[in-house]
Amino acid sequence: MSPKSDGAAVTTAPETDVEGVDNEAVTKNLVFVAAERLFALHGFQNVSVRDITAAAGVNLASVNYHFGSKDALLYEIFRRRTVELNRERAKKLHEAIDRHQGNPPVREILAALLTPPLKWLAPDHERRISLQFLIRARSEGTDEIRKVLQTDVTHLRRFSDALLKARPDLPAEEIYWRLHFTLGMLHNNRFAEFDRLNVLSEGTTSEADVEALLGRMLHFAEAGFSA
Amino acid sequence: MSPKSDGAAVTTAPETDVEGVDNEAVTKNLVFVAAERLFALHGFQNVSVRDITAAAGVNLASVNYHFGSKDALLYEIFRRRTVELNRERAKKLHEAIDRHQGNPPVREILAALLTPPLKWLAPDHERRISLQFLIRARSEGTDEIRKVLQTDVTHLRRFSDALLKARPDLPAEEIYWRLHFTLGMLHNNRFAEFDRLNVLSEGTTSEADVEALLGRMLHFAEAGFSA
DNA sequence: GGGGAAGTCTTACGGCCGTTCGAAATTGGC
DNA sequence: GCCAATTTCGAACGGCCGTAAGACTTCCCC
Question: Is the CB of A25 under 7 A from strand C?
Answer without folding.
Answer: no
